[in-house]
Amino acid sequence: MSAELKTNESSKAAGFNFATVVDFFKNNMREYGMLVALVIIVLYFQFQTDGVLLQPLNVTNVILQNSYIVVMALGMLLIIVAGHIDLSVGSVAAFVGAVAGYMLVEKDYPIIVAFAACIAIGAAIGAFQGYWVAFRKIPAFIVTLAGMLIFRGLTLVMLGGTSLGPFPSSFREMSTGFIGDPIGGAESALHITTLIVGLAFAAIIVYLDLVGRKNSRSFNFPVMSTPLFIAKNALIVGIILAFCYILASYEGLPNVLLVLIGLIALYMFVTKKTVIGRRIYALGGNEKAAKLSGVPTDRLTFYTFINMGVLAAIGGLIFTARLNSATPKAGTGFELDVIASVFIGGASASGGIGTVFGVVIGALVMGVLNNGMSIAGVSVDWQQVIKGAVLLVAVYFDVSSKNKG
Amino acid sequence: MSDVLLEMRGITKTFPGVKALNDVNLQVRRAEIHALVGENGAGKSTLMKVLSGVYPHGTYTGEIIFEGQECRFNDISASEKLGIVIIHQELALIPFLSIAENIFLGHETASRGVINWNTAIAKTQALLKKVGLSESPNTLITDMGVGKQQLVEIAKALAKEVKLLILDEPTASLNESDSEALLDLLLQFKQQGISSILISHKLNEVSQVADAITVLRDGATIETLDCHKEPISEDRIIRGMVGRDLSHRFPPREATIGETMFEVRDWNVYHPLHAERKVVDNVSFTVRKGEIVGIAGLMGSGRTELAMSIFGHAYGKHISGHVYKNGREIDVRTIQKAIRNGIAYVTEDRKSYGLVLIDGIKNNITLANLPAVARNSVINEPKELRVTNQYRDDLAIRSSSVLQKTVNLSGGNQQKVVLSKWLFASPDILILDEPTRGIDVGAKYEIYTIINRLAQEGKAVIVISSELPEILGMCDRIYVMNEGQIVGEMPAADASQEKIMKCIMQQEVNQP
Asked: Under the GO molecular function aspect, what terms does this record hold (chain A) (predicted)?
């Protein structure tokens, strides 16, 4: 109650003063807390690694290394928001990689056929697990624990204990290639197309924010004061452009980043603007109330698992293409990174709460930690300890800020 | 002089931005039943939390004097040690443990960590006898009714050698006979010298058993009424609670009743777990356009089960029977179909079944009819805000904005959100299950007004309620239910509490 009053007052204050900034962060702690943490982590490792972290080559690497985690985390977000969990994503990704290996390396199928088959298999696996969870009411933890074993086993059966590779180069392009530069041309030191894409992207984001602000105004909802709003958008535009500049001074936008941005935009839209998204949040918030409001809760749960299967398949394909081989051990431990990203991003373990924005930040926190620690020479053993501690601390802050609010 | 058991003096408790209690005084004598009444949010529960140590010493100002000693409780166990035991509205029993295990949970009869079950069970038996339960101490809590569970809670309190028993809405979920038994028990305790503080919305119970009544309003003590000096009427208590005369507890009603709109015929429902138990037995009833029909009956008589089974088979198994709307049979086999056919069901348990508490008012209101604010399944947010703001104004939902989370609303405002949700689904037939449970007097009136308006708009309204005055005050026609059957039907003009109870009793007698 008092917090809301505060926002009201601060939005009325016309001037740009320190108090309103502090207030703003207080009131939006949950949304921006992790973003601030990410910036701190980036700055820390930038310093620790003598500037290696933000070098163009390394930034590109961080994106390539984490792309499949982000893809799977988008599916995991919906699963967790709906009040479930999926432990099988790593095994499913490995199995799909094995199928891709069989079709492309052993049998020489056209890529498009192999692609379609892999996505269909992912959907079928999701449907299989979703069936047990949604219609047979077996806890997702158990169903997907079984799935984790089943699909890891099937991967081993398919590969017979060896690796399959190398893959056709056109398949690898998806994960390791970069977009062309028709505007700047091959001679240009900077990748001009990348910069233009970045500018367009920044413009879209500012436009959407303006529309949202106008909307809130027309309903007399508290909005940020104008100077604060400009400062916030300038910061966002600055970060996007700086990021694109860094990429442009290496090879430009990686293909996989385009895929990623497309998926992130799609899932932001689905979770925020569509009927099905709204219903998934309601289902996770209170399943009984959602059911009695006519929400087809069982069918929705089923769909979220199919969606997860498809995204696990895409993640598996990206990973396999990057590794250039399908291996029995692929994807081990992915489920943990994926689930951690979602929770670090502020999702609630009891369902109903979580955002795509948060998940992306969560995945970046994990990714930058991994990369930064590796460059700084922290041993793999200690890396795990630190990641575990970060997960615990992040969720603790989230829980305690919720209790206060 | 030592007649006073407890005195709370000048208690002030502030939460950030809100003064929840302002200089509150409360005096409870030995062997007294002291009722604490007030509207929701008046500060009753906060005061009791201060007393029992939930809010430790130092987080409030003022003093607590118990048996002549000033007390500074740091937690609940400190107050329990002195014999102050609080029984919360939500029962704190563990369902899959036995009575004995629950009673001695936390202070087991053990030596060196090994429990002596023989003593525990013997002690439990003695305690159960005191509260009038004949169950075996090994019975699991989950196998007992709510009324008996409440008695187990009290037995648990007795095990702690209680001197002052605090009961927060103990009869809210009990039927009449269980409530009666519980109040009798309080009177017995009084004889034994145990005092009780009774928080209750049921004013008839309060005026029946209380020796003194303290009225709280807006966090302040308004008055303490002595019931021995003069008999205190319910109206007198209400006047203290709301600060004005509430001359009419029900809004005036001018019914314009049309043709039969909704009809249920030969409806049978079996228990979802015990397939041989018939919960609704051959029920038939009709509701006309613009009519408010009441379904009276005791708790467990099958009213909620009847309503939920009609609403998309949301309860029960092997359901048979027919449902007609405007003379044509309709399909209600899933909740989606029932809603599409114009039926709405407002649940008796709004927190568990009615609201997504972590969501805002807006998202809750549109949940049952999202396609109406969406195009091609993309939500039109400005339209959604417009619609929900309209309901917020129309139904006077007191809130900071439609984005406020429903968990922070008072009971009455929460109920208005649930009502808005179903109004937005624009149903023709509304089934309201205990629409005013746990809602204070002022908000009740508002809810009644909304219900009246709906009937006026030509909807068929069914009201299920355990409070007979509410049924009598609101409805045009009344069905009486017992043991899953309809045992009586009467126009409200001819009905009285006695008549309804008689219907129920007669059937009990006729049972073999």
From this structure: hydrolase activity; transmembrane transporter activity
Nearest Cα of chain B lies from the Cα of A5 at a distance, in angstroms, of 8
Neighbour count for residue B481 (Cβ, 10 Å): 26
Together in a domain, B155 and B294 = no
DSSP A168: P
**Which residues span the domain enclosing B152?**
4-242
Whether residues B198 and B292 share a domain: the answer is no
Query: B248 in a domain, yes or no?
Result: no
Which tokens go with A94?
Answer: 């490995």
Contact B357 A286 (CB under 8 A): yes
Q: Each residue of B162-177: b (16+ CB within 10 Å) or e?
A: bbbbbbbbbbbbbbee
Q: Could you report the predicted ipTM of this complex, rounded to two decimals? A: 0.86
* Residues B211, B223: Cα–Cα separation, whole Å: 14
Torsion angle of the four alpha carbons A312, A315, A321, A322, in this order, in degrees rounded to the nearest 10:
-140
Token pair 């005084």 is at which residue? B25
- Sheet harboring B278-288: ordered strands across? B278-288, B260-270, B317-325, B328-329
Structurally, what CATH architecture does the domain formed by A32-177+254-400 represent?
Orthogonal Bundle (1.10)
User: What is the per-residue pLDDT across A352-382, written as a single tens digit (0 to 9) for each?
Assistant: 999 999 999 999 999 999 999 999 999 989 9
In tens, the pLDDT along B343-377 reads: 999 998 898 999 999 999 999 999 999 999 999 99
Q: Are A269 and A234 in contact (CB under 8 A)?
A: no
C-alpha–C-alpha distance, residues B361 and A392, integer Å: 32
B14 burial level (CB within 10 Å; 0-12, 13-18, 19+): middle
Q: Taking CB atoms and an 8 Å cutoff, what residues of chain B touch A296?
A: 336
Amino acid (1-letter code) at residue B102: N
Query: What is chain B's Cα-based Rg?
Result: 24
Tell me, yes or no, if B17 comes closer than 8 A to chain A by beta carbon. Answer: yes
The minimal CB distance from A289 to the residues B355, B378, B386 is found for B355
Instruction: Give me the residue label for tokens 């305790």.
Output: B189
Burial of A171 (0-12, 13-18, 19+ CB in 10 A): buried
Pick from A97, A127, A81: nearest CA to A272: A81
Nearest to A278 among B311, B363, B403 (CB): B363
Residue A278 CA to chain centroid, in angstroms? 19
Tally of CB atoms within 10 A around A222: 20
